Amino acid sequence: MSNIAHTYYPQSGRLVILGAGESGVGAAILGKDKGFDVFVSDMGNIADSYKNTLVAEQISFEETTHSEELILNAALIVKSPGIPEKAPLIKRLRALGIPVISEIEFAAQYTDAKLYCITGSNGKSTTTMLTYYMLQKAGVDVGLAGNIGRSFALQVAREPHEVYALEISSFMLDDMYHFRADVAVILNITPDHLDRYDYKLENYVASKFRMVQNQTENDYFIYCADDEETMKALDKHPTKALHLPMSQLTEETIGAWLTEDKNIVINVPHREQFTMNIEELSLQGKHNVYNNMASGLVAKAQDLRNQTMKESMSSYVNIEHRLEHVACIGGVNYINDSKATNVNSVWYALESFSPDIVLIMGGVDKGNDYEMLRDLVKSKVKAIICIGKDNTRIHESFEEDTDVIVNSASMQDAVSIASHLAKKGDTVLLSPACASFDWFKNYEERGNKFKEAVMAI
């Protein structure tokens, strides 16, 4: 059995994996276990831990190059989500008609587990983790994978589960064709990664809606009825799955909604109705109400008991680098939101705190439109401290909306400036709106450097 109805891809022969990160090495191990002749190729340096795994598994690999003579003879390619479609090698593979798929698509062929798949421009890590936490507390045999946790392919190969909570990015969805989600969640859609989608929002929206492309009438589709782009796209991307909308603005009859007295109500057909006051949620803020609704709807689709859901929603602790409270020093709260790599995430962060905020932002701009932040910056932000190599666009966007915009030379420098500008009762918030790879390896390193600098004050 598998989550791909028929076998569309070669089941033997040469399997080439492009990219030797978590997903690539996991796919290589699954491929080896299924009898493929596996080769792994990475344009960069392979991390020692992954290299050691490949050596121990006797899987051949190369690093710092893609040798075309070793790649173009593949029967099947599994590519890292980070490699864009316009890369010359991918174009060549497409021209030769060699199937190029994602690790999720590859692994789904080899499991009959239930797949609960969560995507969205914002909130997908929190929602996936909360869903996983809730299912675990209920005693479900559940794995956590996708954009988070250990490789899905590796778990299918060596640590199989009955259910998987999968965080799915648009880059993964782009290389998924026959995969089917038992429960598909689209939390929200706001402009992000538009550089990968020819700067066209409709291309990015179409990518997100690949989540529902193979669903049947026995599946569930959870989405936000308050999200403009999602609602506009529903007719263009039909699905047979049962629709479960969630809303904080209107009371629905099915799905999840917020009552006037601030109760979340979750109603899924043939399941016991669930009610919980938002004051009892461990994750506070408007965006987290949606995250709890989505996780609650998945839990109800799995027929979890109300008591287990309540206990989970009131005890869950948020993930690192996402609105993470680092310290309170001299009455100033320091918040690490390094995972906020797009404008909408920063909007959520600013919406979660009261004035006055000293905002640390900047990095590699992915074609950001800062307009949506202007009102919040005007009303809540007393200073912006820029990190990263080029912050021209941040200066241009906000120079009239806040009194202070300054550049910094390092994260330590940024935190030092912030600590001098912030007074008792203020919040220093790292919420960059940008990718990290001009100064840092990834958003985790950026967040850790922020935390180190705060603890050194």
From TrEMBL:
Cellular component GO terms held in the UniProt record: cytoplasm
Protein's pathway: Cell wall biogenesis; peptidoglycan biosynthesis
Biological process annotations from GO: cell division; cell wall organization; peptidoglycan biosynthetic process; regulation of cell shape
Subcellular location: Cytoplasm
Assigned EC number: 6.3.2.9
Residue ranges annotated for the Mur ligase C-terminal domain, each copy included: 321-434
Pfam families, per the entry: Mur_ligase_C (PF02875), Mur_ligase_M (PF08245), MurD-like_N (PF21799)
Domain (Mur ligase central) ranges: 118-298
Residue positions binding ATP: 120-126
Assigned protein family: Belongs to the MurCDEF family.
InterPro entries reported in the protein's UniProt record: Mur-like_cat_sf (IPR036565), Mur_ligase_C (IPR004101), Mur_ligase_C_dom_sf (IPR036615), Mur_ligase_cen (IPR013221), MurD (IPR005762)
Family annotation (HAMAP family): MurD
GO molecular function, one term: ATP binding
Principal location: cytoplasm
ATP-binding in keyword set: yes
Family matches, as Gene3D superfamilies: Mur ligase, C-terminal domain, Mur-like, catalytic domain, NAD(P)-binding Rossmann-like Domain
Keywords linked to the UniProt accession: ATP-binding, Cell cycle, Cell division, Cell shape, Cell wall biogenesis/degradation, Cytoplasm, Ligase, Nucleotide-binding, Peptidoglycan synthesis
Function, as annotated: Cell wall formation. Catalyzes the addition of glutamate to the nucleotide precursor UDP-N-acetylmuramoyl-L-alanine (UMA).
Name under which the protein is recorded: UDP-N-acetylmuramoylalanine--D-glutamate ligase
Catalytic activities: UDP-N-acetyl-alpha-D-muramoyl-L-alanine + D-glutamate + ATP = UDP-N-acetyl-alpha-D-muramoyl-L-alanyl-D-glutamate + ADP + phosphate + H(+)
Signal peptide: none
Species for this entry: Sphingobacterium hungaricum
The organism's place on the tree of life at top rank: Bacteria
